[in-house]
Amino acid sequence: MTGFQTFYDFGSLQRFISSKPSISNVGIVPTMGALHVGHLSLIKRALNENDLVVVTIFVNPKQFNNRKDLENYPRVPENDLSLLRQYQGVVACIPEESDVYPKLDPYPGITLGMLDRVLEGQYRPGHFKGVAHVVHNLLYFIKAKRAYFGLKDIQQLSVIKRMVDETRLPVSIIPCETVRDDSGLALSSRNLLLTESDYTAASIIFKTLDFVRKKIKKEQPEVVKKKATELFNSGSLKLEYLELVNKNTFEPYTTGDVNGVCCIAAYCNNVRLIDNVLL
Ligand code: AMP
Asked: Which helix (H) or strand (E) element contains residue 268?
């Protein structure tokens, strides 16, 4: 393949793919841009497993339940494109909102059940409805064989798996490990909004998650949750939730569950951060 390409509509991307007989497996990495090393790890994994990787950049208005959050979301498209340019086998797709949500919208809607009522579902009403809708349409219009998502957004991953099951889209969903900095803080586009001292303070998130991971084998979940909450509150972030749940159903965690996960959401000044560890 020669030269890095960016497509601004699905039609021209599809024509490009159809014109290359050497491309039989397409991987897709949906993002909202402000790319960091976490995104790049998904891209590298996708490159290993596919002939072509499409990285979409679309800040999806439907998944923001707060207008200020949408306005403040970092947008650095030039920077994103220069990062992507280094990878042979990657193309960028930056669609218009009217392309993602055409008048004849193909999304049939799905039932989110419990996933939409707890943790992120509870605190960000409408968020997962917007996530399921955008990911459905991206996967519907860009016919990829595999789609890559980060475990950092573990509840989102469950929503997407359910959406793909219900709508029977012919795509495999591939979960990818969370990439962290040296302090344990999960990389996130929102970290760009943190000051240097916020950044240091935010390391309490991973410290607390790590505490839960170590203690949960020895103590009752309620006791671990109480101690972990105390530890978290010794820092300066404002806790929204700290919950131990099953990573598929998001029902409360019970001792011995091999699919347990501890999830945290917290505000560091006005920046909302989420993270989790498997138990
Ligand atoms: P976003 O641009 O934040 O919507 O993220 C796009 C994809 O990258 C999602 O599947 C995220 O879960 C994933 N992602 C974000 N941060 C990380 C990280 N630190 N490590 C691994 N994947 C991540």
From this structure: strand 260-268
Catalytic residue flag (residue 39) = yes
Q: What is the pLDDT of residue 66?
A: 87
8 A C-beta contact, residue 63 and residue 101 = no
Task: Annotate 6-43 with DSSP letters as a single string.
Answer: EESSHHHHHHHHHT-TT---EEEEEE-S---HHHHHHH
pLDDT of residue 2: 58
pLDDT of residue 168: 97
Q: Return the pLDDT at 268.
A: 95
Write the CA distances from 158 to 83, 132, 161, 212, 238, integer angstroms: 29, 10, 5, 22, 26
Substitution site in 152, 159, 181 for ligand 1 pocket (most atoms within 8 Å of beta carbon) = 152
Pick the atom of ligand 1 nearest to 33's CA: 2
Whole-number pLDDT of residue 3: 82
CATH number of 6-176: 3.40.50.620
Query: The pTM is what?
Result: 0.96
Q: Which residues line ligand 1 (CB under 6 A)?
A: 31-32, 38-39, 41-42, 149-150, 152-153, 176, 178-179, 186-189
Task: Enumerate the domain spans of the chain.
Answer: 6-176, 189-273
- Ligand 1 nearest-atom number relative to CA 178: 20
Could you tell me the mean pLDDT of each successive run of 10 residues in the chain, 279 residues long? 87 97 96 96 98 98 91 93 97 97 97 94 95 98 97 97 97 98 94 93 98 96 97 97 96 95 96 96
Distances (CA, A) of 28 to 60, 93, 158, 216: 16, 10, 18, 36
Which CATH number is associated with domain 189-273?
3.30.1300.10
